[in-house]
Amino acid sequence: MKIGILAVQGDFEAHAAMLATMGVETVEVRTPCDLGDCDGLILPGGESTTQLQFLREDGLDVAIGKFAANGKAIFGTCAGAILLASEVKNPRQDSLALLDMTVLRNGYGRQVHSAVVSGPSTLRKEPLEMVFIRGPVIERVAPNVEVLAEYAGKPALVQKDRVMASAFHPELTSDTTVHRHFLDLVGIAAPTEVSR
User: Fold this and answer.
1) Which residues, at least 6 apart from 37, have a Cβ–Cβ distance to it below 8 Å?
2) CB distance 21 to 193 below 8 Å
3) Does residue 114 lie in a domain region?
4) Beta carbons of 8 and 41 less than 8 angstroms apart
5) Which of 4, 19, 50, 16 is nearest to 180 (CA)?
6) What is the CATH number of the domain that holds 33?
7) Which is nearest to 107 in space by CA: 82, 136, 141?
8) Residues recognised as catalytic
9) Would 53 be classed as within a structural domain?
10) Domain range for residue 95?
11) Per-residue pLDDT tens over the stretch 41-66
């Protein structure tokens, strides 16, 4: 089984490195055809307006919508979370609208300052390490969207069915908790981890 990682812009390589430590095969997704053999898809951090432009130019926006409609798992981090949101504000921008939530692009002044913090999570007993790099703020989630982790009183990791979004970068830590949860959504039992 393969996890696709959107590779049109942003730090997609860090997700591939994280999944490699977990023994999971990845493929870089740049065209709709690249999605063909993927069992799940990661939308990485980067610049959301630039990513959306690439998606539209190549027809990937429609392909990703069909991918989600077919019940495939999708995980967006930082800019990827912005792309998944049904509403993007401050400033407003279009999105894929696959997750019923409102995201502020510049929520804490000029987005969340870059920081490594810890916060409560439903994924484990210990606090979850979160790396924010000018992260968006998840301002609102629909009642049917589950909050998996919080930071500063706001949702930081959310999920509905097989679509998950985080305002932070779990791929920049050594903790595989978030990626392992995504693989559970995909239906892949991750093999034993190899040393990083």
Assistant:
1) 2, 27
2) yes
3) yes
4) no
5) 19
6) 3.40.50.880
7) 136
8) 78, 169, 171
9) yes
10) 2-186
11) 999 998 898 999 999 998 999 999 99
